[in-house]
Amino acid sequence: MLPASIPSPDPVWSQIHLGPLTIHTYALCLLAGIAAAAYITDRRLRARGAAPGLALDIAMWAVPIGIVGARIYHVLTHLGDFTGPGVDPWAWIRIWEGGNALFGSLLGGAVGVWIGCRLTGLRFWSFADALAPGLLAAQAIGRLGNYVNQELFGLPTTLPWGLEIRPDAPMFPDGADPGTLFHPLFLYEMIWNLIGIALLLTIERRVVRRNEALLADGGTPGAGLRWGRMFGLYLIWYGLGRSWLEAIRIDPTSDAPLGVPANIWTSGVAILLGIVIVVVQGRRHPEPEPSVYQPGREPEDEDTEAVSEETAEADAKDAKDADADPVSAPPSEAAAEGTDANGSSDSK
User: Fold this and answer.
1) Is 345 helix (H, G, I), strand (E, B) or coil?
2) Do 109 and 189 reside in the same domain of the chain?
């Protein structure tokens, strides 16, 4: 370990062997991030009136399609690694070896979310707004897998938090000195994402308080960060972070149209799309969001129905007992019938 540096994990940490089963640490980090996003999203949806567990139902569609999208995006932006003579044609499906693009997972995941929302009756933008902080949390956790695989680092640096990369690591730059330290991009992105969570939640909380104050004063509250605007802010924040991180990243196998890395182009698209969502949805929906459900898809309140049925059954039983035996009727009902407990008139 070099002085004043961040050591990379021993390659043995990248896998866990349980008999004939091999579990990749990278996959565990992805699963942990997915679980965190599902938990955060479910709590936020429930606070907005959704039934429990809907986030998991939608995740069953979003996660697998998102993983496929992540791999496809990575392959398309690193065609040199997956094409040409002597290249294993099945290499593109070995996702456990690393190589999953976050922007591709967003595109594929969006398709999965749309399908899940159609089936569950949730509004697409309502789910996206609830998901935004969870996405940042998932991405922060998932970057630990890149750290274990030693595959996400930047230009050489002499800063005290420089990252050590083993010379035999697949992504170690050709011609670099074995003692070279690199910018720990995995750590930079983790910090950026955690700051983004705090920022988005702070803005959301302040907007909610402002609307509550307007409502208390008899004014008309605005839409807040609903109708997709929270997700739009997420795209802006994450796109800004990735644009400068990709500018100092070492990724020699990535395609670079016009000399600009593909991920920087995609980051710019994410920023523009986020701005469009915030502006357009702000004009289309200045009113508060009435429900997280699509119109006509609101579920019936099962608890209320159960209580109503129990109350109706109890009332019917009391009425039947009162007809059969006036003595057993409650005093209030006997008084209403104009009789006392002995069947005589109360009128004096």
Assistant:
1) strand
2) yes
